[in-house]
Specification:
CATH topology: Vanadium-containing Chloroperoxidase, domain 1
Distance between the termini: 47 Å
CATH architecture: Up-down Bundle
Oligomer: single chain
Largest sheet: none
Helix content: over 70%
Number of strands: 0
Strand content: under 5%
Number of domains: 1
Structural class: mainly alpha
Number of helices: 9
Length: 241
């Protein structure tokens, strides 16, 4: 499957099916957690216990690391990273649609999170537990959504355009998932989100990332196919000459 992650080839049926499966799973997970938020069951029932564990075991060092992670890898920091990545990919002659995909995923993921917060309006954990200042509602975690949207999209685009060896692709993908996970966990350490907020954010961001990258890949592949077809047509000798 990883060997098929190349931007110079159209996504195969297996790749499209895998992408659709991931998106369906992530959207389904988000909706399932959202339903739990509304009725108070399922994963929501574990929120208080999980948050209590993080609060009990966090120390000054972990709080400092979590604050830096949330600050540097928040929306503003990720926008800077996305712009730098877009510039770097364009210098490597990566097609614009794919080069801009991580930035597009970040913006769309951020928008989706803001809209969802307005819709659900869920309260955050008790203020006395917070280890940093926050605003807006809790569900879903915008930090988790933004991080998943950007890092998953970025790792997929790098695998499509720069890294083609299977082992290195696995490392890039694992690194993207790990960074998204780090940001989400930092919100639990800081006690500004419930576990369900973070899980929903990861799911939403991942769905957006896969959708945006697959869409950009199809655009690039379609453009390349059209160029080849035009080139072949121009090279033919008209009948009667």
């Amino acid at each position: 499957m990883l060997s098929e992650l190349r931007a110079d080839r159209a996504p195969s049926r297996a790749v499209r099916l895998a992408a659709a499966t991931v998106m369906a799973f992530c959207v389904g997970l988000f909706l399932l957690v959202a339903e739990d938020v509304l009725d108070g069951g399922g994963l929501i029932s574990r929120d208080a216990a999980v948050l209590g564990w993080f609060v009990e075991h966090r120390g000054d060092t972990w709080i400092t690391v979590a604050r830096w992670s949330s600050t540097l890898l928040g929306f503003g920091g990720l926008c800077v990273l996305a712009l730098v990545l877009t510039w770097w990919l364009r210098r490597r002659a990566v097609p614009p649609a794919l080069a801009a995909a991580p930035l597009a995923a970040l913006l769309l993921g951020g928008l989706a999170a803001v809209v969802a917060k307005a819709v659900f309006g869920r309260e955050r954990p008790p203020l006395v537990l917070h280890a940093t200042s926050v605003g807006l509602a809790a569900f879903p975690s915008a930090h988790a959504t933004d991080a998943a949207a950007f890092f998953v999209a970025a790792s997929l685009v790098v695998c499509l355009t720069v890294v083609h060896r299977r082992g290195r692709q696995l490392l890039v993908l694992a690194g993207g998932v790990a960074l998204a996970g780090l940001v989400g966990v930092s919100r639990l350490v800081l006690a500004v989100h419930w576990l369900s907020d973070v899980v929903a954010g990861w799911a939403l961001g991942t769905a957006v990332a896969v959708a945006v990258v697959l869409g950009a890949w199809l655009v690039v592949a379609g453009g390349a196919a059209a160029t080849v077809a035009v080139g072949r047509g121009a090279g033919r000798t008209p009948p009667g000459r």
